[in-house]
Amino acid sequence: MKRLPLGKLDPRLLTKLLEKYTGATNSQLVIGPSVGEDAAVIRLRRMGDRYLVAKSDPITYATERIGWYAVHINANDIATLGAEPKWFLATLLLPEGKTDKRLVRGIFADMARAAKELGVALSGGHTEVTPGLDRPILIGHMLGEVARDILVLKTNAGPGDRIILTKGIAIEGTALLAREKSGELVTHFGKAFVQRAKRFLLAPGISVVKEALTAAKVARVHAMHDLTEGGLATGIREMAEIAGLGAEVDRQRIPIFPETQELCSYYGLDPLGTIASGSLLIAVAKRDRDKVLSALRAEGIRAEDIGCLVEKARGLKLMEDGRLKDFSTFKVDEVTRILGNR
Question: pTM higher than 0.85 for the full model?
Answer without folding.
Answer: yes
